[in-house]
Structure formats: structure tokens, C-alpha cells
Amino acid sequence: MTEREITSLTNDTVKAVRALHMRKERETTGLFLAEGLKFIGEALDQGRTPRTLLVGMEARPHPLLDRARAETRAAGGEIVVVTHPILEKISRRENPQTVLAVFEQNFTPLSALNPKSAPCWVALEQVRDPGNLGTIIRTADAAGCGGVILIGDCVDPFSVEAVRATMGSVFAVSISKASPTEFLAWRETWPGSVIGTRLDATTGYRDAAIQTPALILMGNEQAGLTDELAAACDVNVKIPMRGRADSLNLAVATGVMVYAVTDAA
Ligand code: SAM
């Protein structure tokens, strides 16, 4: 397939890609936007190819760009060459990446997860901040976790802001979503420890006897972990607050927890 050149800001492809900033559009199409060659390289390494590859006219030659072009073409995706103003408009940034790509979203059903494939998994209840969620996905990847499970009404992991914060780990870590009821039923089948994190817990985060695979439950940024989910845990733990701060940022607390578990595993 030959590459198409687009120069008009009102072109239909430009409008469709730009619309992926809206959650409703992402839900309807099942697509999301990733920016930059690093992200695209992560995706290709995981066997994921762009539906649409948008290459800025000023993009410098790069072996990874050649690979992205070849694999997109081979998988039947579309390649479009676009102007700088189009990159700016799509990414809503003054200094946009010179290569953008549209991918299919990939949610893994709970029933398809293999808990024993990793020592640690993370479940988030009603996470609301896209930066927190992206950072947690990146941290889960870095620590060697199997995946991230979103419980209840969470921010979209495929929003442009969340994807940016993952730094490419959105392609490396499985992402699942479940209602609280679905999660609680699935939790019954969990083969290791289920660990809640609460500020009112009396057990220190290093003091709990943990059996891997560990499933770590993190609460909402404002309300914390609900009583319902905390009651479903084998143990609830607290990271000590030694200064005046009454809690840690959610992503930081998740980082502390996943490294404590994976280092001990
Ligand atoms: N006001 C909320 C509360 O009472 O739980 C604070 C929520 S905190 C910002 C968000 C989440 O980060 C918590 O639900 C918990 O999962 C985790 N977290 C933050 N600090 C923690 C700590 N010191 N010990 C255990 N978990 C913590």
C-alpha cells in the first residue's frame, strides 16, 4: 500500500485520530493514540502493530521507523505522512513527537489471567488520575508484575495522558477491568495472598506473611480502599508515615508495595 500525504487540518483521518482524546470515541472505536518512536518500538516488540502510523514530514530517518513502516504495511495498517501543524493538532502539543500511531486497545479478561505467571499483581479501586494510573502501569512493568486490574469506575488506561505516563509499558503489562462484584468472585480463586493497603491497618507492609503470587489492592486517591474490598483481603498493611504527611501518593505507595513483594519473592 502506498503512503498517503495529508496536509489539511480538516482531513477525516486527522479528525478521527484527534477524536481519540475523547473517552467516548476510544470506547466506540476500541482504539488509542501512542506518541513517539519509543512507544511504537515497545509495541512492535510485543507483536502489536499500528492500525495507522502517522509520520511527520520532518521525521528523521531511523531504523525503528523503517521497521514500523514495514510492519504496519505487512499487517495491513495505513501509513500517512503529515505536516507539523497536523502533529501539533493531533497531540495538542506545541512540540509534538514526529511519529504517532493508533493502536487497538487490549483488555485481558480476568478469566484469561494466569496468576502464577508472575509473583505480584496490582488491583486498583476507582483510580481517578491518569498520571497515577500510567505511572503505576510503568512501575508494575519495571518491578516484574503480571498485570494491573482496574476495579469499578476507573480512569481510562488508554487516555492520551495515561498512555504517556506509562512510557511504553502499556504494551508490556496486561490490563484488566472488573466491577467490584466480578472482582470479588474472581478473588476467591486467587492462589496466593491478597493484600490490602490502608492507612488504618495495624500490620506493617514488611511484616505480613505473604504467599506468592501476591495480589496487592490499592485504594482511590481520595477515599482510600473501601471497607468491602479491604474485608476481602487476607491482610491489610500500612506503610509507615514518619513525618507530617498523612498518606503517600497512590503511585508512590504502589511502587513501595510492589518492590517490597517482588524483592522478597
Ligand atoms: N484519604 C485516603 C485514605 O484515607 O485512605 C488516602 C488515600 S491514598 C492517597 C491512596 C491509596 O494509596 C490508599 O488507598 C492506599 O492504597 C495507598 N496508600 C497511600 N499511603 C499509604 C500508606 N501509608 N500505607 C498504605 N497504603 C497507602
By CATH's scheme, which homologous superfamily of the largest domain applies?
Answer: SPOUT methyltransferase, trefoil knot domain
Beta percentage is 15-25%
- Give every kind of bound small molecule, once each: S-adenosylmethionine
CATH level 1 class label of the largest domain: Alpha Beta
Structural class: alpha/beta
Structure summary, number of beta strands: 12
Order of helices and strands: EHHEHEHEHEEHEHEHEEEHEH
Q: Name the strands of the widest sheet in spatial order.
A: 8-7-6-11-9-12-10
How would you portray this structure in words?
The chain is α/β, with parallel strands linked by helices. The protein folds into two domains: about 5-105, Ribosomal protein L30/S12 (60s Ribosomal Protein L30, Chain: A); about 110-265, Alpha/beta knot, CATH 3.40.1280.10. About 35% of the residues lie in helices and about 20% in strands. The protein is built from ten helices and twelve strands. It has helices spanning about 10-20, 25-30, 35-45, 65-75, 85-90, 130-145, 160-165, 180-185, 225-230, 250-265, and strands spanning about 5, 30-35, 50-55, 80, 100-105, 120-125, 145-150, 175-180, 195, 205, 215-220, 235-240. The strands form two sheets. The chain has a seven-stranded parallel beta sheet with strand order 8-7-6-11-9-12-10. Strand 7, helix 7 (about 160-165) and strand 8 (about 175-180) form a beta-alpha-beta unit. Helix 1 packs parallel to helix 5, helix 6 (about 130-145) runs parallel beside helix 7 (about 160-165) and helix 6 packs parallel to helix 10. The longest helix is centred in the C-terminal third of the chain and has 15 residues, at about 250-265. It is elongated and about 60 Å long. The termini are far apart. The protein binds S-adenosylmethionine. S-adenosylmethionine binds near residues 197, 219, 238 and 239.
